[in-house]
Specification:
Layout lengths: L1 H52 L10 E3 L4 E3 L31 H29 L3 E2 L4 E5 L5 H8 L5 E3 L7 H4 L5 H6 L3 E2 L4 E5 L2 H4 L5 H8 L4 E6 L2 H19 L11 H16 L7 H14 L4 H4 L3 H8 L8 E5 H6 L1 H11 L11 E3 L6 E5 L5 E3 L20 H22 L7
Parallel strand pairs: 4-7, 4-8, 5-7, 8-9
Antiparallel strand pairs: 1-2, 3-6, 10-11, 11-12
Helix pairs in contact: 10-12, 12-15
Length: 434
């Protein structure tokens, strides 16, 4: 009996130990399952984040693939095997669209334009401030317009001078190197305005390009070495008529004798001078070009009225300038582009003389009445700043000058044809049809 009680006690103890061990193992298994569940939940959460962000690579060393029935690890991306698609699903999840954040092309363009205008205004104000707070002194020009007469030199100056770092001399045309070429450079400096060091002084004297003395380019290069040159060339046949009208207007204002008063019409002038100039300089001859340049300048001295025609021999005049200037310090502008798209020219010239580009192409708008462009003052309620009427004598819609007969114009184009071709060869580009 006693043995039976001992046996039963041992049995109960064994069963109690079994249940203790069972419960302990079960607890461990539950913990393990919870851990697995948490891991699975984290993986699903990562996949959800990937779908929403449209990014499928989890990190630099491990990727995952959803096969619909489980989450399986993919081999480390550093292994040398063919690349495995980062993620693929039977039904790709579309990235949610936030329609109110989607901008139209016009809205994007408007935003970019507004930002451009803000940047321009900030730069402009900084330039004005720097100009007004620094010590000012007289400076020789950094930009000299050398011509050509009646090709838009005044329009060029008019469109550029609103820039806060451009200062035009009061007289506009200095005529120093053509009329006082033997005077000391200090006399030239005395004609300049007092400006801050970062301001570019400009003067333009169209006579420099085609008038004597022959050494004008050499004199400018030697005395104003830092100056850059701007040359505006226009179709020479039309330029003749514009120059003729200008000479008559100048004679009526000043009664300055130039010989123009003896010709009442352009036909009267051409009847006398076209045969004379043709026999001397047409066609263009490369072998005698240097001598012809000197003879053209001598004609200017002895017979000023011949310059209405000889100024248009651009190749002859340009050759003496190319001895001292190249593309780095001389900008050649097509006069027709200045007339039809002055804003594009102004943007390029700001780069040319290395000043901040605060005059923009859109600042120049065409006047519907005259057909000429005006500068729209962006910081003055869009006020239009247009050329004076005396600079619109032959090309304006409101011009009172007689139209240039087409037959006469074509005759002059034929007259200039060989000289034009020589010019285009020098420039490496065509500016108009000759």
């Amino acid at each position: 009996m006693k043995s039976m009680k001992i046996f039963i006690g041992i049995l109960f103890l064994a069963m109690g130990g079994f249940f203790i061990v069972y419960n302990f193992a079960k607890s461990c298994d539950d913990i393990l399952n919870i851990g697995k569940l948490q891991a699975v939940l984290k993986q699903h959460e990562a996949i959800s984040d990937q779908y929403l962000s449209n990014a499928f690579r989890v990190n630099s060393s491990e990727t995952i693939r959803d096969k619909g029935d489980g989450i399986l690890p993919i081999k480390n991306s550093s292994q040398k095997e063919a690349a495995v698609p980062v993620a693929s699903v039977e039904e790709p999840v579309q990235e949610p669209l936030n329609e109110h954040l989607q901008l139209s092309p016009d809205e994007i363009a408007n935003n970019e334009h507004d930002e451009k205008m803000r940047e321009r205004e900030q730069t402009w104000n900084q330039l004005v401030a720097s100009r007004n707070t620094t010590v000012k002194r007289k400076q020789l020009p950094r930009l000299i317009g050398i011509g050509v007469e009646k090709c838009g030199t005044h329009a060029f100056l008019h469109f550029l001078k609103p820039h806060p770092l451009i200062k035009v001399i009061r007289k506009i045309e200095a005529h120093f190197f053509d009329e006082r070429s033997t005077a000391p450079i200090s006399e030239y400096l005395s004609m300049m305005p007092e400006v801050s060091p970062n301001t570019a002084v400009m003067e333009k004297t169209p006579a420099y390009f085609s008038f004597p003395p022959y050494a004008i380019p050499k004199l400018i290069k030697a005395n104003v070495p830092q100056a850059k040159i701007v040359l505006i060339l226009c179709e020479p046949a039309k330029r003749v008529y514009s120059d003729f009208v200008h000479e008559w207007a100048w004679y009526n204002i000043s009664h300055h004798w130039s010989g123009i008063h003896q010709f009442h019409t352009i036909h009267d002038y051409l009847k006398k001078y076209l045969p004379k100039v043709t026999s001397a300089f047409v066609p263009y001859n490369e072998t005698r070009a240097s001598g012809d340049t000197l003879r053209v300048l001598q004609h200017h001295v002895n017979d000023y009225m011949s310059t209405l025609l000889t100024t248009g021999f651009y190749a002859l005049h340009l050759k003496r300038w190319l001895k001292y200037y190249n593309d780095n310090d001389m900008m050649v502008v097509d006069g027709s582009e200045l007339f039809n798209d002055p804003g594009a020219v102004m943007e390029r010239v700001q780069d040319f003389i290395d000043i901040p580009k605060v005059l923009l192409r859109e600042d120049y708008v065409r006047d519907s009445k005259t057909g000429f462009f005006c500068y729209k003052e962006w910081n003055n309620n869009g006020r239009l700043n247009c050329l004076p009427s005396n600079k619109q004598r032959t090309r304006s819609k409101t011009s009172t000058s007689d139209p240039f007969p087409e037959e006469t114009l074509q005759h002059l184009k034929d007259f200039y044809k060989t000289h034009n071709e020589a010019l285009f060869k020098l420039l490496g580009r065509r500016l108009w049809e000759s």
